[in-house]
Amino acid sequence: MVKFFSLNLNSQQAAVAVTVSEAVELPQALAQLGLSNSRPVLVIVGGASKISEADFLRIQRLFVEVLAPIAQSLGAYVVDGGTDAGVMQLIGKARSQINGDFPLVGVAPIGKVILPEQTTVFSEDATPLEPHHTHFVLVPGNNWGDESPWIVQVATVLANGAPSITVLINGGEITFVDALNSVIAGRLVMVIAGSGRTADKLVSALHGDATDERAKQLAASGCLQTIDLEAAKEDLIKTITNLLLN
Asked: Which CATH class is domain 3-245?
């Protein structure tokens, strides 16, 4: 059953949210959120709470100078995990920093998030929602990673035939699952080399140097590409933009 409600996450902008229980409800849920027109979709997956400070500082530029401006210029939907941590926090802050107005859609398990004014928290590692997101789809689940297949499905419904890609930055164990779900859906995964952890394991696999079996299998799918974090801003923008236009 779809339930629609508003969220007050920051003073500058109201957000809207829906809860869903089945994938078949997604078209209705997204239409209730006002997200029914087809647009390019940029899915962002990767590190959350365990990004090192050094990696965090290095990848911040990617969000402010590349990913948020691309989404703004294309009017794209951006879809991620929606919580106030890691890459999700970075894209939220980048959207605010560039005064963006592109839809930023967080997909998160209802049993792991803390809603505004919520007085009872049922999980030790529950996390608040990122306050600069505009829309949230709250899905069934009491574990991190339960949202992974839903992120893929939300992106597919939103794109509705328009181009979509997944950008993978840093990441831990769940990021392997996120990458696999994108591959299963036939969505290209752009791995940001030099961003650390899972991303760099996948890049090694693409270069034939992997020791991680999951990375080898993903690299063999043909659905992974890579670009270096330290590439020129113009090259990063051109590469990712072209993928979202074709």
From this structure: alpha beta
Q: Which of 159, 177, 181 is nearest to 243 (CA)?
A: 159
Nearest CA among 191, 174, 177 for reference residue 62: 191
Write out pLDDT tens, residues 92-124.
Answer: 999 999 999 999 999 999 999 988 877 666 677
Tokens representing 21 are 């229980």
Where are the chain's structural domains?
3-245
Q: What is the pTM of this model?
A: 0.96
Residue type, 11: S
The C-alpha angle 58, 63, 65, rounded to 5 degrees, equals: 95
Residue 6 near residue 15 (C-beta atoms within 8 A):
yes
Structure tokens at 89: 């926090």
CB 100 within 8 Å of CB 72: yes
* Contact call for residues 67 and 87 (beta carbons, < 8 A): no
